[in-house]
Design brief:
Elements (H helix, E strand, L loop, with lengths): L1 H53 L1 H11 L1
Helix pairs in contact: 1-2
Length: 67
């Protein structure tokens, strides 16, 4: 009887652990996707900044849109 109860507890804990692991993996994948999107946005902003520092046409276009 004790062995059966111990086995039931082990099965329950294992099932919950797998469920939590699956949830954590999904959350990790979502966060990883968010990080990739943010990195792409940062890269785009870096390119814009570099272009505004070096390209006179870009500087003029930016100034005209803000006026």
């Amino acid at each position: 009887m004790i062995m059966l109860a111990t086995f039931a507890v082990c099965v329950t804990v294992t099932m919950r652990t797998y469920a939590e692991r699956g949830s954590a993996e999904r959350k990790f994948d979502e966060m990883n996707t968010d990080v990739q999107k943010i990195r792409q946005a940062n890269l785009s902003l870096r390119r814009d900044i570099e272009r505004l520092h070096k390209d006179p046409w870009a500087i003029e276009a930016a100034a005209r849109t803000r006026l």
